[in-house]
Amino acid sequence: DVIGGDATLADLPLREDLRGRSPYGAPQIDVPVRLNTNENPFPPPQELVDDVTTSVREVAASLHRYPDRDATVLREDLAAYLTGATGVTLSAANVWAANGSNEVLQQLLQVFGGPDRTALGFEPSYSMHPILSAGTRTEWLSSPRRADFSLDGPEAARQVAERRPDVVFVTSPNNPTGQSVDPGDLRAILEAAPGVVIVDEAYVEFSARPSAVTLIEEFPNKLIVSRTMSKAFAFAGGRLGYLAAAPAVIEALLLVRLPYHLSVITQAAARAALRHAKTTLGSVQALADERERVVRGLRERGFTPVPSDANFVLFGRFADAHRAWERYLDCDVLIRDSGIAEHLRVTIGTPEENDVFLTASDQVSEEIY
Ligand code: PMP
């Protein structure tokens, strides 16, 4: 018996447009092999753990004061990392940071979306894009990918020109399907877009394709590139997302961000993690190699993996994907049912975890494939 437990959701004076909606819900289950939320499977190296600990200890003495509201030093560090990674010289004025890229995306929708505005995405794609749109009362426009989940560039640009969304989401590499956008296709979408184009590059470090950051100079009032430290940086628990754009975009975000949204602790921990970027990002190649091994293993077992340049693979085909997901769980392997018919998504884990996954795949393929 919980205090207040008699009041149900239906009893609340909820906004009508939120009634009947479902929250984001990747299951958090304690299973030996967890390959369901696209984290880096390698824990942070001891030097990073020590640096975070020392840095947080230092700032703890000033916890009675609010943090730097603009997270200037952290943004300088992020700009330096992006400059090195993309070859485009960026400064703190080009970079914004928040608690995970989900918060970055929400702030962008607060600024560029909202009532009477629309956001368009090419689905299947990241499920939070429509959820964040709903939360900010931005009407969601769904545009389909091809049957093989690739993006039809000319058709995408045509849809953008015709439907004139205020916000376009291009996820590259795309979650949950794995492929990156072709640079020519992205350019066509940018040229067609009447509003802003958010390229969600949460998994870009795993891809050999160039970052959209190289196009910011050409499309300063349209292009916003969103990134995160949750994946390749092995910092999902630290909650640090960021973006690169023209300085005017950052000025716009100041209008909606909560003051002091990035805690003293988050800023210090993220800066420490960035100092060890070389080591954490060293796992990227190993994970890409493991991805190719998992893809081969799935093919050998008769499955159909979708080509991926991220740290996960969508694969099928299952007559009943949800039952197959349950069978993997019976084998102590938690993967993801993204709701795509006949398909499941597996995050690339450590070599040992991938072995357990492939062994489980033997069983699943025998029983129900
Ligand atoms: N974008 C994409 C495409 C994602 O897959 C994710 C994580 N699942 C995010 C953004 C958000 O990640 P975070 O808030 O941890 O940065």
From TrEMBL:
<keyword id="KW-0028">Amino-acid biosynthesis</keyword>
<protein>
    <recommendedName>
        <fullName>Histidinol-phosphate aminotransferase</fullName>
        <ecNumber>2.6.1.9</ecNumber>
    </recommendedName>
</protein>
<dbReference type="InterPro" id="IPR015421">
    <property type="entry name" value="PyrdxlP-dep_Trfase_major"/>
</dbReference>
<keyword id="KW-0808">Transferase</keyword>
<feature type="domain" description="Aminotransferase class I/classII large">
    <location>
        <begin position="33"/>
        <end position="359"/>
    </location>
</feature>
<comment type="pathway">
    <text>Amino-acid biosynthesis; L-histidine biosynthesis; L-histidine from 5-phospho-alpha-D-ribose 1-diphosphate: step 7/9.</text>
</comment>
<dbReference type="GO" id="GO:0000105">
    <property type="term" value="P:L-histidine biosynthetic process"/>
</dbReference>
<keyword id="KW-0663">Pyridoxal phosphate</keyword>
<keyword id="KW-0032">Aminotransferase</keyword>
<dbReference type="InterPro" id="IPR015422">
    <property type="entry name" value="PyrdxlP-dep_Trfase_small"/>
</dbReference>
<keyword id="KW-0368">Histidine biosynthesis</keyword>
<dbReference type="InterPro" id="IPR005861">
    <property type="entry name" value="HisP_aminotrans"/>
</dbReference>
<dbReference type="Pfam" id="PF00155">
    <property type="entry name" value="Aminotran_1_2"/>
</dbReference>
<dbReference type="GO" id="GO:0004400">
    <property type="term" value="F:histidinol-phosphate transaminase activity"/>
</dbReference>
<dbReference type="InterPro" id="IPR001917">
    <property type="entry name" value="Aminotrans_II_pyridoxalP_BS"/>
</dbReference>
<feature type="modified residue" description="N6-(pyridoxal phosphate)lysine">
    <location>
        <position position="231"/>
    </location>
</feature>
<dbReference type="InterPro" id="IPR015424">
    <property type="entry name" value="PyrdxlP-dep_Trfase"/>
</dbReference>
<comment type="similarity">
    <text>Belongs to the class-II pyridoxal-phosphate-dependent aminotransferase family. Histidinol-phosphate aminotransferase subfamily.</text>
</comment>
<dbReference type="GO" id="GO:0030170">
    <property type="term" value="F:pyridoxal phosphate binding"/>
</dbReference>
<dbReference type="InterPro" id="IPR004839">
    <property type="entry name" value="Aminotransferase_I/II_large"/>
</dbReference>
<comment type="subunit">
    <text>Homodimer.</text>
</comment>
